[in-house]
Amino acid sequence: MSNFTSVDELHALLTEGASVRVLDVRWRLDRPDGHAEYLEGHIPGAVYVPLHSELATHGEPSEGRHPLPSTETLQAAARRWGVRAGDIVVAYDDAKGLAAARAWWLLRQGGIDVRVLAGGIRAWKAAGLPVDTDDVSPEAGDVALDEIGGEALTIDEAAAFSASGVLLDVRAPERYSGETEPLDPVAGHIPGAVNLPTGLHLDPEGKILDRTTVLKTFASVGVTPGASVAAYCGSGITAAHTVLVLDEVGIDARVFPGSWSQWSNTPGRPVATGDQPG
User: What range(s) does the Rhodanese domain occupy (predicted)?
Assistant: First the structure.
């Protein structure tokens, strides 16, 4: 089964009255709170999910910008969203699925049947489908999540990963190389990591490219079926999208959720610059 759901498929599920819960996960680096945009128009029945407080927690800079929530925190959030045992969950955003992928990655670990809406809210509106402007507050759900965190790397595991596998840095090339760093105290990348921006797997509308193209892109940096793979980004959000795409083409991978924000705020960690792993 695909990790992605089309707008037609979602519309059919909603029309048929299927047990589906829709999550609006609008979040971007330049606009971390997407609630106002949600209220301007969202998929009918969709619940707004604040990524920073329900799909992440807060900690010291040395923990990164978006540390993982506990299983208990995520379960309480999922119940607030109205998720019940056996529900299908569909997450979307307005940023090519990058934020929605964080919900997918966490909820999948919790044992939920979760998918990402291909093309997000933009595809929904482009199809001429209706939007609502209410602030949805559903009846509390009863879902019980499995323990999460098993697919995450610690900072020490990330440091050693490239010795036996492929560590992907999925940020923009200029951040990987150290030419610029708009958010963190040090510019560069984890030594041994290879650069493969997650946007390379998407078309201009934010939908995943065909399987052959995606596999060829991954193979260009040594990622092939059966390889040991992990991904990181700035703060563990975009990396989840790369893992989503990898899973879609049959390649298992893990995420270093602390990512560069944790690495660069931890004294003593080595830094590589330039366009090579180093």
Answer: 16-133, 161-272
3 catalytic? Reply is: no
The CATH number assigned to the domain with range 4-126 reads 3.40.250.10
pTM score of the predicted model? 0.96
The DSSP code sequence of the chain is --SEE-HHHHHHHHHTT-SEEEEE---BTTBS--HHHHHH-B-TTPEE--HHHHS-----GGG-SSPPPPHHHHHHHHHHTT--TT-EEEEE-SSTTHHHHHHHHHHHHTT-EEEEETTHHHHHHHTT---B-S---PPP----PPPP-TTBPPHHHHHHHTTTSEEEE-S-HHHHHTS--SSSSS-SB-TT-EE--GGGGB-TTSPBPPHHHHHHHHHTTT--TT--EEEE-SSSSHHHHHHHHHHHTT---EE-TTHHHHHTTSTT---B-SSS--
Q: Do the first three CATH levels of 4-126 and 155-263 match, i.e. the same topology?
A: yes
Kindly give, in sequence order, each residue whose CB lies less than 8 Å from that of residue 209, ignoring residues fewer than 6 positions away.
201, 202, 203, 217
Which residue out of 233, 239, 249, 251 is catalytically annotated? 233
How many Å apart are CA 198 and CA 201, to the nearest integer? 6
Segment 49-71, tens digit of pLDDT? 999 999 999 888 899 999 999 99
pLDDT in tens, 172-211: 999 999 999 999 999 999 999 999 999 999 999 999 999 9
Q: What is the CA radius of gyration of the chain?
A: 18
Per-residue b or e along 1-28, where b marks 16 or more CB atoms closer than 10 Å to that residue's CB: eebbbbbeebbebbeeeeebbbbbbbbb
Domain boundaries, the chain: 4-126, 155-263
